[in-house]
Design brief:
- Helix content is 65%, strand content 7%.
- The termini are far apart.
- The relative contact order is 0.05.
- By secondary structure, it is mostly helical.
């Protein structure tokens, strides 16, 4: 065998020393290899090296890679490419093949690592850990130039074997260090006696560790403390409850909580949720229900059924004795209204009484016996009846003047003569023709004022119907709208007698016991809200009955008012025509206008306001005492304004306007306002036609003639004679005050002969002189004024026949 080997060596050496007869270039060799591969003489793969001067088979490459891995334990693919001289692509391909066939190898981040390498790493880490007691994974990863996740994956299977330590929160700890920290956590947890957030506790422990270990110590994460704490809780080394992972309640505190709650609830039969919140119980209802199964949860309080029995007994006693009770006064002071209301809803006697209508629950807190409420309603109803259905008249009898006033003033004596006799006679005759028109309108107004009556229009003839169609229809529509406004105005909230505040005061007066409450209005307000609709309903029923009884009276009153308005307005228009004669004399015109407004116009307004006031009260169902004599009602300015303001809506505005027009300077303005209020009231203000004008003037002349014939007072005779002369001369009915008589006489100068005019002037001069002496008289015996007055009176009496002769002889 040795000889054969030696022979082969000699042959190999001879071959090496032999010189080739043919030399091939590198290009020829490459082409030769390619040809051999084409001829399949070389039937295996060949890989080029990076230099291009060598070939290597894949099997040889794998063998070289495996040898390098076994030698180093951890090798980079880039380093393998440099070592083998083969392209990185082929190295990666063969490396994947090697790793896939060998479970002890892993290819990570371009490196092939053996399992034995990690064992070596684990041993190194363990040696360092034992020296430092703790080490961060980030530090290990930086040292071995791998990722932290990879380090965790490698070290976890080797903990307790190759690595004697504990991995927690990215840190490695030795068992001794873990035991030390575990003891700190256990001691701190056992020292806690009140609920605490564990995050704050971990912060304190971290600070303590840093103080103990100095600057070289590694910061311990809260998760490490939490892990140790959870283990202690699991092993029952510390007792308590953990909520949401961080809220720790020690068992000593929980026991104290339960004892406190049990003690309070057993003594008081209730406990508020606020008290449990102060004790640190965040879900009081669930806590209480778990401990007291018979308890009842309310809005803010948890109560024992005995509390319901107590309130039920108090309410039952109040219902049986016809009284009332306040649930809050029976329950403890800490109870809120919503709690009391909820307990009342659970009281059996209260619910039974409510269903049988023996009790009322008002304001959710107050239980009233039905008998108590009914008795109070009856007393209030009686009080309200005296206040609303028997309202006294706005115009006391002592303030009303009947009949004609004294004739001290020439104007008043003239008015007495002009209005007392002729107007009624003429209009009673003339109004018969138009009676159907005026009565028809007043019937409509009366019908509109009653809600249950039907509308009716009465007319006498087609002529009157056509003549009054436009006016009547407009008045009827205004009357309807006015009546509706009146009805709408009387609403619950507008009636002061039934206002909530007034009602509360009435209840306090009738039941003084309510004043003993700390805040009576809290009890009285729901009671008043309950009684007010009942009182209003009762008042409306009585008012409806009163309206039905007043219907005929209202119709008669409107008929009377229309008739009197026809008389007064016709007279006013007749007197107004005489004022045109003095338009050229401004001072005299103003004087005559004012006189007419303060006499005839004032009397007419007083009559109109008084009748409308009575009608308005009857329409409201108020009983009004009727005047025995409605012919001559005299009101003061204050009374006129008071009545005008008492009317509803637009009627009040127009009534105030007509009252203010009495203080004006023009009769035309007054007549316009009078027309407005008449239209708003549903009345007709007739215009004076020629026929009625002649009739009135003739009657006025006839009446004045009879008055002049019978007149014995020298002073009163002059204005009547002047008025009669104006009828004879101008055909106008003049109403002139004493201050305007001289101006009126001067207008007659061109219409009378000189002798007649002289008689008038002399008589007027003597009258003025006598009145001046009478006003200047002192009443002393030595005063000679009385003799002069007597002489003037005698002079006037002797001149009276001549003065009367101026008008009587021509009449």
């Amino acid at each position: 065998m040795d000889e054969e080997l030696l022979e082969l060596q000699r042959q190999f050496e001879f071959a090496q020393q032999a010189k080739s007869s043919i030399r091939l270039s590198e290009r020829n060799v490459v082409e030769l290899v390619q040809k051999l591969q084409q001829l399949q003489i070389i039937d295996f793969d060949l890989l080029h090296t990076v230099s291009g001067k060598e070939y290597i088979t894949p099997e040889q490459l794998r063998l070289e890679i495996e040898a390098e891995i076994r030698r180093l334990g951890r090798v980079s693919l880039i380093d393998l490419a440099d070592t083998t001289g083969v392209d990185l692509y082929h190295v990666e391909k063969q490396a994947q093949y090697i790793v896939s066939n060998d479970s002890s190898l892993m290819l990570i981040n371009g490196e092939i690592i053996m399992t034995s390498y990690w064992d070596t790493v684990a041993e190194d880490v363990n040696e360092r850990l034992q020296e430092c007691s703790q080490i961060a994974l980030a530090e290990i990863a930086a040292q071995f130039q791998v990722g932290s996740e990879l380090i965790v994956t490698v070290l976890e299977p080797r903990l307790g074997t190759l690595v004697k330590g504990r991995l927690e929160g990215g840190q490695l700890y030795t068992p001794a260090y873990v035991a030390r920290v575990n003891g700190m956590v256990r001691g701190a947890a056992r020292g806690i006696t009140v609920p605490m957030n564990l995050s704050a506790l971990w912060g304190l422990l971290q600070s303590l560790l840093q103080e103990m270990e100095g600057a070289s110590g590694v910061t311990v994460g809260g998760s490490f403390f939490q892990s140790l704490f959870n283990g202690l809780v699991k092993d029952a080394q510390i007792l308590g409850s953990l909520r949401a992972g961080v809220h720790w309640t020690p068992i000593v505190f929980a026991s104290a909580q339960k004892e406190c709650v049990d003690s309070f609830f057993s003594q008081n039969s209730f406990i508020s949720y606020e008290a449990l919140h102060k004790l640190g119980i965040q879900q009081p209802i669930q806590f209480l229900q778990s401990r007291f199964h018979e308890g009842i949860p309310l809005a803010t309080t948890f109560v024992h059924p005995s509390m319901i029995e107590m309130l039920d007994a108090a309410a039952e006693d109040a219902i049986e004795h016809g009284s009332w009770t306040d649930s809050l006064s029976v329950l403890p002071a800490s109870f809120l209204p919503q709690d009391a209301s909820a307990i009342l809803s659970l009281c059996p006697s209260v619910q039974k009484a409510l269903k049988s209508n023996n009790a009322l629950l008002l304001g959710d807190l107050y239980v009233f016996s039905n008998g108590f409420v009914k008795d109070l309603f009856d007393r209030l109803e009686k009080e309200m009846e005296t206040l609303t259905l028997s309202v006294p008249d706005l115009h006391p009898a002592k303030d009303v003047k009947f009949g004609n006033e004294s004739s001290s003033d020439l104007a008043e004596s003239t008015e007495t003569g002009s209005e007392s006799g002729f107007s009624k006679q003429v209009l009673e005759k003339g109004s018969k023709k138009k009676k159907g028109k005026s009565l028809g309108n007043t019937k409509m107004v009366a019908a509109e004022s009653l809600p249950d009556n039907q509308e009716s229009v009465s007319t006498k003839s087609k002529k009157n119907q056509r003549k009054g169609k436009a006016t009547s229809s407009s008045q009827i529509s205004d009357s309807k709208s006015g009546s509706r406004k009146d009805v709408e105005k009387i609403k619950e909230d507008d009636f002061t007698e039934f206002s909530k505040e007034r009602l509360i005061q009435k209840i306090l007066t009738l039941v003084p016991d309510f004043e003993d409450q700390d805040d009576p209005e809290t009890v009285l307000e729901p009671l008043a809200n309950h009684l007010r609709p009942m009182l209003l309903s009762s008042w409306k029923e009585k008012r409806k009955v009163a309206l039905t009884g007043n219907a005929q009276k209202m119709k008669q009153l409107l008929d009377t008012l229309q008739r009197k308005l026809d008389e007064s307005s016709s007279n006013m228009q007749l007197y107004e025509k005489a004022l045109d004669l003095f338009e050229d004399d401004q001072s005299a015109s103003v004087l005559l206008h004012r006189h007419l407004l303060r006499t005839a116009a004032t009397s007419m307004v007083d009559m109109l306001l008084h009748h409308l006031d009575m009608h308005n009260k009857m329409k409201l169902g108020i009983e009004v005492a009727e005047f025995q004599n409605l012919e001559a009602v005299s009101l003061s300015s204050r009374e006129r304004i008071a009545i005008a303001k008492s009317f509803p809506g637009p009627l009040s505005v127009k009534a105030i306007a007509v009252v203010e027009a009495l203080e004006g300077k023009r009769v035309e303005t007054f007549m316009n306002t009078l027309k407005d209020i008449a239209e708003e009231s549903g009345l007709i203000l007739k215009k004076l036609d020629k026929k009625l004008d002649r009739t009135l003037l003739h009657s006025y002349r006839k009446d004045l003639t009879s008055q002049v014939s019978a007149e014995t007072d020298p002073v009163s005779l002059l204005p009547k004679v002047v008025s009669l002369l104006y009828i004879q001369v101008f055909g106008r009915a003049l109403q002139a005050p004493g201050r305007a008589i001289s101006v009126a006489i001067s207008r007659l100068k061109d219409k009378l002969d000189d002798s007649a005019y002289k008689i008038l002037m002399d008589y007027q001069s003597a009258t003025v002189t006598r009145l001046a002496l009478m006003s200047a008289a002192t009443g002393d015996e030595e005063d000679c004024t009385s003799d002069r007055i007597l002489s003037k009176k005698e002079l006037l009496e002797t001149s009276m026949p001549a003065l009367k002769g101026l008008v009587l002889r021509t009449s």
